[in-house]
Specification:
Layout lengths: L2 H13 L2 H8 L3 H15 L4 E3 L4 E3 L1 H25 L7 E7 L1 H18 L3 E7 L2 H10 L4 E5 L8 E15 L25 E4 L5 H12 L5 E5 L3 H9 L5 E4 H10 L2 E4 L7 E8 L7 H19 L6 E2 L4
Parallel strand pairs: 3-4, 3-5, 7-8
Antiparallel strand pairs: 1-2, 5-11, 6-9, 6-10, 6-11, 6-12
């Protein structure tokens, strides 16, 4: 097993088709099929199931996807660091940020990079998580921030921290607040019943997380308004049209100004991981490594001084 085999294996995984993967790699389909057979012989198990539409990873294939992503990223990073150890990082790096992450990191990263990485041109692209994931898969960005990305076996993720979603309402809805603008006393789960909620559409990652966690508690929300806009959601909540669920980072400014109020919900785990994510099949550049390291440093500083209410993951 070598690097080329792993990269080709990952391409088959992304395309779910040996023929399409061969076209993208610029090699003959029979040659790619033979590579896959040799890889399966080496592991002693099938890595893909043949279907009418192409191929689908077996359980063994999904396990290899996760390990291959880590191995390829490590090899890329080693190669780039060895070759560029004496060079000043330079070039362009595109990073995809969901709306909330963009609020806390986007401008700060651009400002900090002026001094730390003067020859690196950072392109911040804000979008919903599904779009960022597609950009990573298509190689249109080098780095992305995603929530609950551990299940994306075809992409390489590194968890930085975990943050918790809060119940958000109009000003004064939850009583006395602490220094961060969060109600001192958590609210009970029963408060959720009978309230109108303003949430993203069902395809949105945040909505999926909320419904998955509430389902575990046999709870459901009365969603009266669906809107895929953070700014509009906050405006509607502040005007008294309903409640929502957001992280502290998304509403920090509104809590400070008194436009919104927020509270933890007792007995429900509404935490989510925050990860830096890459496509392991994409070449790793020294510039993107430095951007990731700088962004990590900034997020850690924000947690330390209270600008970002999150729990850092110590092994990263």
């Amino acid at each position: 097993m070598d690097e080329v085999q792993l990269r080709n294996f990952m391409m088959i995984s992304r395309c779910a088709s040996i023929t399409e993967a061969a076209d993208r790699l610029g090699i003959a389909q029979p040659s790619l099929s033979q590579q896959l057979l040799r890889l399966e012989d080496e592991f002693g198990t099938k890595l893909f199931r043949r279907t009418s539409r192409g191929v689908a990873a077996t359980d063994a294939g999904r396990i290899l996807q996760e390990h291959a992503a880590t191995i390829l990223q490590a090899m890329n990073r080693a190669r780039e660091e060895v070759q560029g150890a004496e060079r000043v990082p330079q070039g362009q790096v595109a990073i995809g940020l969901p709306g909330t992450a963009s609020l806390i990191l986007g401008v700060q990263l651009l400002i900090a990079s002026r001094a730390a990485l003067p020859l690196v041109n950072i392109h911040v692209r804000e979008a919903m998580s599904g779009t960022i994931r597609r950009w990573l898969e298509e190689g249109r960005i080098e780095l992305g921030v995603l929530y609950d990305a551990e299940g994306l076996h075809h992409l390489a993720s590194k968890v930085i921290a975990r943050e918790t979603l809060l119940l958000v309402g109009p000003a004064g809805a939850f009583g006395k607040a602490d220094e961060f603008g969060i109600a001192i006393e958590p609210v009970e789960q029963g408060v959720l019943r009978g309230q109108d909620f303003i949430l993203p559409s069902v395809s949105h990652g945040l909505r999926k997380l909320i419904e998955r966690r509430l389902h575990m508690e046999n709870l459901s929300l009365a969603v009266t308004t669906e809107i895929d806009s953070l700014a509009h959601t906050k405006t509607l909540v502040a005007a008294g049209f309903g409640y929502t669920l957001l992280s502290h980072a998304a509403i920090r400014a509104e809590l400070t100004s008194g436009e919104l109020s927020a509270a933890l919900i007792a007995g429900i785990d509404l935490s989510r991981s925050v990860s830096f994510v890459r496509n392991p099949a994409q070449r790793l550049t020294r510039a993107s490594i430095e951007v990731e390291d700088l962004a990590t440093q900034l997020l850690r500083e924000m947690v330390a001084d209270g600008r970002w209410l999150a729990t850092l993951v110590s092994d990263n």
